[in-house]
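Good day; I would like, with your permission, to put a structural problem before you. The record follows directly beneath this note:
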Amino acid sequence: MKEYGCYDKKDLFEMMYREMYLASEGYVWEMVSSGKIDADKMEKDFTEIIEFWKSIFLKKGQTPEGDAKGE
């Protein structure tokens, strides 16, 4: 497996997944704790954060389904 610094690809994926999970859980906790659950706002906010994560974690030309070549 190709290594990136001291992490291999699997470790990086697991760290990325955990970061996304914790950020999502924290966001939902904040909404529930505020007592004001606005589903439309939550959908908008999650759509924005997902686009942000895509811009960080996907290589240029890659889609969530695979790379630009369809591999």
